[in-house]
Amino acid sequence: MPHNARVFIIDDDAAMRDSLEFLLGAAHFAVTAFESVAEFLDALPHLGFGCVVTDIRMPGIDGIELLKRLKAKSTKLPVVVMTGHGDVPLAVEAMKLGAIEFLEKPFEDDRLVSALRMAFEQSIKNAKVSGDTADLSMRLASLSPRERQVMEGLIAGLSNKMIAKDHDISPRTVEVYRANVMTKMQAANISELVKLAIRSGVIEQ
């Protein structure tokens, strides 16, 4: 979990906000509290990444509407919803809208802290996967059309001579393209090249 991971609390109950601020501050989260969804949405463009903890029933814009608006904006903030007794159907609806967890009040402090830690850890993993995918796409895009043809031949298990024959070029030229492919794709050998091709979708699993 990142140091001082940010948590945005949304609850119209001042006592609940104070209690959560104390709890999460003691657990080394950086906390910002809002008394309404409208206040949170006004501040959202300036908040950066964090995890949202919101009550589900509030005056004005409620937790369900918040989830709908975040989804419409494609905002990738993990959301934990807090529900009162009898709100479980609403909580299920919240999960369908993207909430990562719902906690029925009163809940154990450790459940909230654990849910938030899991949310941040998953976000870090997702960001890494997204970054890796973008990097791999850039490597593929750097290949010339001929290098792409040679790469496809290599991952199909063809020899340099066979690739040369298929594309009416010399084996020596294939060797040059092959070296370029391995360098641009950052593959040390054919096995690594095949794995990269699978991850990038060049080879369907």
TrEMBL record:
Residues 136-201 form the HTH luxR-type domain. The keyword Transcription applies. InterPro entries: CheY-like_superfamily (IPR011006), Sig_transdc_resp-reg_C-effctor (IPR016032), Sig_transdc_resp-reg_receiver (IPR001789), Tscrpt_reg_LuxR_C (IPR000792), WH-like_DNA-bd_sf (IPR036388). The keyword Secreted does not apply. Keywords: DNA-binding, Phosphoprotein, Transcription, Transcription regulation. PROSITE patterns: HTH_LUXR_2, RESPONSE_REGULATORY. Residues 6-120 form the Response regulatory domain. The modification 4-aspartylphosphate is found at D55. It comes from the Bacteria. SMART domains: HTH_LUXR, REC. PANTHER family: DNA-BINDING TRANSCRIPTIONAL ACTIVATOR DEVR_DOSR. This is Transcriptional regulatory protein FixJ. It comes from Labrys miyagiensis.
